[in-house]
Structure prediction request, 675 residues.
Amino acid sequence: MTTVVLLTVTGLGLAALYFLVASGLSLIFGLMGVLNFAHGAFLTIGAYGTWWAAGNLPGAGSTGWGFVLAVVFGVAVGTLVAALIELSLIRPLYERHIEQVLVTVGLSLALVALVRAIWGADPRPFPRPEWAQRTTSVLGANVPNDRFLLIATAIVVLVAVLAFLRFTRVGLIIRAGVENRSMVTALGIDVRKAFTLVFAIGGAFAALAGALGGIYLGSISPGQGTSLLIFAFIVVVIGGMSSITGTAAAAVLVGLVQQFANYYAASGVGDLSVVLLLAVVLLARPSGLTARMA
Amino acid sequence: MNRMGVRRLAPLIVLVVLALLPYSTLQVPGLFDGVLNSPGTLQLLALCLVFGGVALSFDLLFGFTGLLSFGHALYFAAGTYVANLALTELGWGLGAAIALTTVVGIALPLLIGSVALRVSGIAFSMVTLATAQVGSIIVLQDPGGLTGGEEGLAVDRNPIPDALIGVFNTVNKYWLALAYLVLVYVVVTWVTSSRAGRVWQAIRENERRVEVLGLRPYRFKLLVFVLAGLLATLGGIVHLLLLGGSTPRVTTADFTIGLLVMVVLGGAGSRWGAVLGGVLYTYLDSRLTDLAQSPAVQDLPAWLQIPLSEPLFLLGTLFVLVVLFVPGGIAGLVAQLRERRAGRRPSGDDGPAPGRVVEQLRDQVTAGTGVGAGARPHDGV
Prediction:
């Protein structure tokens, strides 16, 4: 029983991480039709930004508010980089989706290589707040606190995104843009501002996932973002490409399947079963769990 | 001889020059360290030729048929690992190992293609990416100590003919690599001008129209998927013989992305463009690594030295610049120049101009995904 509880919470923690990465991908794909391969690089930038700030930024550190400040710095850097990339590289290729995807492919190589050139390829220990290193007893199982942090953050992000899409004017434009972009443009609304915003938000979520992934895994390395990105891709496709709630459901499914299969079968089987899950879902429902936007 | 004749003969001339290259003791300062027929230079050139061939096999899928597979690495990796295991674990001869690998090279893409091709667009890319990831995970998990995990797997030299072993025989490996490239080039030239090749190009332009004509795109797509997979598998065998082992690096998604970069760099939908892209990428990747370790770079100030020390940073940046400013890659650039000189469009014996291919793919990739799945009108493009 305690094992099941531990696996469930850990699986949900992993799901939270996947959701954070995948929600940004899903928003960007839904609105712009761009499958953002540079998303993993944003994650790496967020992780290294947080790590750098904890060591060098005055006031920031690995405890309490200092750590919050470090994360805020990491997320800000990720957001800024994403916004700049959208403005300088994605926007000039407006309406040329394949080229936009190709640019992000090139960026994913270049940005990760740059991080590796500056800080080396070896993993760096991540400053984990003391609170996150302790455990809490849930139904007899000692669950590391960082799992709860991940789950809580993901829920806050999910609620915030849904509220943003539902209740704000920009959210309305984004929802309309996902459904029929040419009609929105015909109404005289500049979708491109929404593009920049969505790309920056996606970058922010990825950077946040980088910081939280650092806590979850205990260390960061330049290639981490790319390996997480592949699972995030799988989550996005299972969830139905552009649906936020679908992405959340798929993240939970993938996280739990992976944890349980890795524990009860053998390490590595979990990763394989996730791929199998993708094949089954796509064969049964080619457009994913949900075909409509949330 | 008129200009058309020269253009038709050009591949043959290039072939003769490449075949005779090992007899040259020419020193090319800057480009290569030793004379042209030194083992180090020949090894690098052979690698370039192999990846030129593999890039062309990927172009068959991406450039000619419009199938953006993110799992092409799987077939290349299957080639090197299956052949390696047959030689090392089973102790088979080279011929038998090649035969077995060829069977796998047909069966594996047939199996995966028949599943992945049931979906199209981005979903297809994702399924291929995911299946290739399975291969990568299996290799890295090292089941039963078979694949060597991250260490890679050295090949047992006993079953391999002496002519293909050792530094002295690098020249034979070079010719083997050249033979592989020629094989891929001839096969691709032949199939793209066949009836099936026309259908593939029609699928790239407009799949629904092919359906309306009473043809079943699924079968044609599966055919090209298997053929491209098989050609990549054969490339894996040559790579194994060239390196004397298998490395897990060729199983990763990064490797497929590398192939995509090669093809787009050279020009998607152009045979010689894809080959040139593969050769150039491999050459730059190797030479930029040398450059990074050279004293000239080590002495530079940090802000210059750091980016120059990572070949992938330079290649990624170059790629972004090509996508932004040179649509159609090198082949597109050449076509443009020729067009400008002649003052008219070149005679289109290669189908549409290479530069247009990527644009034509655009609608395909967004179709059939979660975004309204076909119900959405195309956004006024």
